[in-house]
Batch of 4 targets.
Target 1
Amino acid sequence: MTPSPVFKRIVLKLSGEVLMGNQPFGIAPEVLPTLAAEIAEVHGLGVETAIVIGGGNIIRGIAAKEQGLERVTGDYMGMLATVINALALQDALEKRGCYTRVLTAVEMREVAEPFIRRRAIRHLEKGRVVIFAAGTGNPFFTTDSAAALRASEIHADALFKATKVDGLYTADPVREVGATLLKTASYQYLLEHSIKIMDAAAVSLCQNAKIPIRIFNIRVPGNVRRVVLGEDVGSTVS
């Protein structure tokens, strides 16, 4: 008997860095098919799946500022980078047989649909994977904030934060040997301890909308499916 998902509608937040694989930048050709297969498997379980993707594998607004560009200009460049990633992921998903729509917060009708909340919900109800690109459409906001905002707007059951670590730690596990994995935490804990797994605006949005955040390692094959099925993977913020 096939196990049943515990979530009906999710928003999966992917960083642009996930697409790099072992490359220093760009999109690794071997990553997209693997990622698309995992998403298609979850979608095949009947889960309405929306995705927010970052652009850090191409450019980040903050990094652009360090290179001498104005922060606002860098942020808009970052938004365009997320559209590139969204189109690449759309192509990989449709090769897997998943009908997919890219909706952008910055209008570019020739390549994607503009974000309209009701249209996004309708696509999900019709069984399409929806990829939200271009962040919130505004500078100074991260794609984490965009993911929390979209999750609130479409009434998602959970926000999945896919990372390169196993969950929520008390400190950066890469830099601090004594960092401890927390299986559960409150929104307030994240805000009070300034844990960098998500920015404060994103956490506050999820808190206000009562949307749980599931944090897990996307580099472990099958983890997206495990979390959807309610297995004890990663960490839960609620």
Target 2
Amino acid sequence: MLSMKEFVPSAPASSSSGKPDPAKILITEDELIVALDLQSRLQHLGFEVVGIASSGDDALIQVEDKQPDLVLMDIVLNGEMDGVETAQHLRDEFDVPVIFLTANADPATLERAGATYPFSFLLKPFKERELKFSIDMALYHHATTRQLREAHDELEKRVQERTAELAASNNALQHELSQHLKTLEDLNATQKIAQSADRAKNEFLATVSHELLTPMNGILGMTELLTESSPTPQQREYLDVVQLSGETLLAIITDMLDFSRIETGAMEFTPTAFSLREQLDAFLKPLELRARDKSLQFFWSIADDVPANIVTDPVRLGQVLVNLVSNSIKFTDKGLVEIKVTQIGCEQNRVHLAFSVRDTGIGVPTDRQEAIFEPFVQADCTPNRRHGGAGLGLTISSRLITLMGGEITLESKPGEGSTFYFDLKADIAKDLNVGAFGL
């Protein structure tokens, strides 16, 4: 914004010499003597008089042609228009300030003149000092008003542009939001279909597994009876094959049934007080025989600070351990399988235990280590893989440990072996009211 020091009203432009040009003034006065006297005074004050008009029409023509910086306007003029009407035309058609000159005027005329928003009124006769001050103030006020108007117009233009940009952005966001909402609706619909299909799959697995379980137990039972009926060596060999195949199939059916129970939330847990050392012995003895058949070293140990008796579900704990140890034996051709139980922490009557199952087997490729906990996934997924199974053992183990409040993890290097870890929180039992369970 301009200050009085920054604005030079009598020299709004600069000449080629670098000096400010004097302000250009048009005199509109019907008395020539008064006009010439006013012209002399203005020139003495340093202003440039660009013309003298005696009528309103002449003033409008000269303003359009000579573009003065200010018009000194007598209210009483020759012709059809007086100074007030002429000032109104100047206000409507040209951006030029007006100062009225009058010797006397009635209140009604002064009121009409004020409606044209002149910058001031000068009463004849006037002094040069008053004339210069009025002109300087008029030019200053007009310049600042023009700057404010231009700044306002520029601001309004920017606001309109920004408003248009925001409106366009808002429209784009609304469109994107509607697309997201549609996508979300599609995803929800797809999810419902997937959930329905998943429920149908689990119900089918549970039904088929349950239906297969009864005849498979019958087959194994009859096979055992035939084995005890003094078969020939060749018949015994055949029965052993049937027995082994049936037990393998029974294990797969049991896994499928357990998996469907976990997925549908039907898996039941029965916390029981038992001796951890005795139960671990019951879990691992049969597996030790299987390891010795493969000439593997087999060790298990429980740290001294682990409580002797705990309360949790021994059947589910045994299921997890048997799954992990069986896998280790299956995928280890030489070396060892080692099971350890340690204490992580103990608070009041609750203990936090850590279990680890380590082997020196084939290991799990790095890119398969997370996937093997997914259902129906094998570490070795090649068509000619050596080891069978439905790929549910680790999934069931992981889900069981999660449901029991723990977590299962894996560390493995291909060709060097694997170590499975899982933790478990259990209450400490002082007395055993129920005997140990075997699998």
Target 3
Amino acid sequence: MTLMKKNNCSGVYLFLLFGLFSVLTSCNTKNKSELLPILTTTTATEITENSAKSGGTITSDGGDVVTARGVCWGTTENPTIVSNKTTDGSETGTFTSAMTGLTPGTAYYIRAYATNSAGTGYGASVKIMTLPVAGSVTDVDGNTYQSVNIGTQTWMASNLKTTKYRTGESISNVTDATAWSNATFGAWCDYSNDPLNGVSYGRLYNWLAINDVRNICPVGWHVASQAEWTTLITYLGGESVAAGKLKEAGFAHWKTATSGGATNESGFTALPGGKRDPSGAFGSLGDFGYWWSLTENTTTLPITVWHWFMNYDTTNAHKDYDSKAFGRSVRCVKDR
């Protein structure tokens, strides 16, 4: 009897040990399989009317092999792989995905994803706006401008010609040199006060006109800031080559030269509209184009304003700052 009791206890003891081992093994297996991959979503780049690039970085596979990764997207926040998706390999680390078939002028949410045996993990949502289809825009004066998509921006493809703010209120047309020099209000003029120059090259404005709260650009557009100009120049390869890609090709407006390198491959069609000095004198038509930015340089006294200029015989785009009393051309960029 005593021996039987010992054997029974040993059996119970072994049974309990086996059961505990089974439970622990089951728990470990379960915990391992229930860990999703951990990852982040990369900021979107190369956004066009119909495409964009994003991706992600997988920092943990969750303890199991990643079998699929990519990005998913949709028009509502936190899309899943049930929505549109790419498939870009099965490794951990950083990856890039190209999304195509997007609708122009549409807001999308993008998330990177990675899948293992436990399921699918996601990075945070990133919102983008695809570019609108390039078309045209009309100002309050009835002037129509073609638009062009360059990188992630939409620009007018010609210089501004309006004589009114978008509210319909007139901007002062100042022809007299002394009056221009002394103006404390927004003003415009045609180069040499010749309306034909305004038709060909657009009008010249002092900075008080473009900085007015009534806004000189059509609704949905604004005068480009220094940062927006820099984005444009950088996208086109930097200051040493960008002007060649921005300037109108040929010599219909630019002074004849063989070294200007003008291709207008961007479609921007920059023209040499010249300038009006603070004294009221005109200069540089056909040789130089000058464009205001909306950004002040507060490191100078008196405060000046950043602008960009291009000349007829080089591919360089130059930035500089100068008096608010100059008359320069204006390009509007679409709100984002």
Target 4
Amino acid sequence: MIPRIFGILAGAMCFAQTLPPAPGAHVVTISAPGERGNEPGIAVNPNDPKQVVAVYQGRARAAYSINSGLTFTLAEGTAPNDWRSAGDVSTAFDNQGHAFLCYLTFDRLGTTSYWAHGAGRNGIYVRRSLDGGKTWEKDAVPVKAFPTGNEPGIQWEDMPRIFSDNAPKSPHAGNLYVGWIEWQIDQSVILFSRSTDHGLTWSPAMRISTHAGLPRDDNGGLVGFVGTAGTDGTIYAVWNDSNSIAFTQSHDGGKTFTPSRSIIETGPPYFGGVPGVSRVMGFPQIGVDWKNGRLYAAWSDYTNGDIDVFLSASSDHGRTWSKAMRVNDDPVHDGKDQFFQWMAVDPISSDVYVQFYDRREDAANRKTRVTLARSTDGGRTFTNYAWSLAAFEGQQVFLGDYTWLTAYDRRVYGVWTEAVPGEVPPGQRGLTVVRVGTADFNQR
């Protein structure tokens, strides 16, 4: 099959732009025409920042760029052919420049939202690329899987997130880590696995959540694991636990973790009543400043009535956290939603970036753009920039459960889902596309 190359997304502004444009803003479409894509991820090769890999749920697809995100080419051989579904994707580069695609697989779901009830075969797998995402190794490596569905004690593994330790002086440099939710019949827990041989093998799954959540994929369950590694190899991880953000850390390369504890009180992480969107979640991200060890956590919730994006910081390795501040700078209580945020900390410049869907410019709170926020003062203040080229409006569209963002040396790379215009028949979901946006703050 001939690879498909994607270039600039053409389009005019749908309505007046009130935010300044992100410097050097550039947006491309990476999903194939007619393909319903969502739940994307993105990563930059620290050894060659011109190499970018973006992935999305459309049976675990991957696209690669060799020109810092100006264009992308869809790769072949990323989706497994022995499973009906492969999704909840994430991606990372290790310190050798290998790219990794992590995804879950299943043939059928269990009871709606109560995934462990009637669960069939499912699993979490990792596939590797040695050439920046152009080609992918044929055999995916299982992290934890029930490949037949007849295994005793079958559980439901969900929402895996892969990340790496790329700090040059870390004693665990090159390690890869995956954390995820395990839905059990009577509870939900967060599991973790590590690879010390560049993804060839993975350690047995270990539980890192001290407190268990409810067994249903809804408010009260444990959801949204995200991890990061500092310059000394310390792993920091967060997830939602009821109306709070849970936090843990590891000082030995993921062999053991401190007891997890709630650090920040939030609103419920699942949101109903967002016009035009079938489901919205506000689970957190965590990032670390490589220069001073300062930690950041970002999330969204509706404690102000409409949905806002928030950030908190810690200067003492997670022991205490600052008061939550709003990242979006529209008037508080204005009835406009900002949601599906993702945060990244630039390892070179220490700038903090947050992207989110933004409806501030639509009185009806339906037309949606993507906004990029940037902080250069340790997360104390943010400047908001318009990033996407045009607004979109969904009709009960499934945007997925997350977007993704990464940054390197003042260049920012975001990936998100947009609804395709057009009437949607009753009972069906609207079509979607996956976009990648880049911005270059070296131009300022």
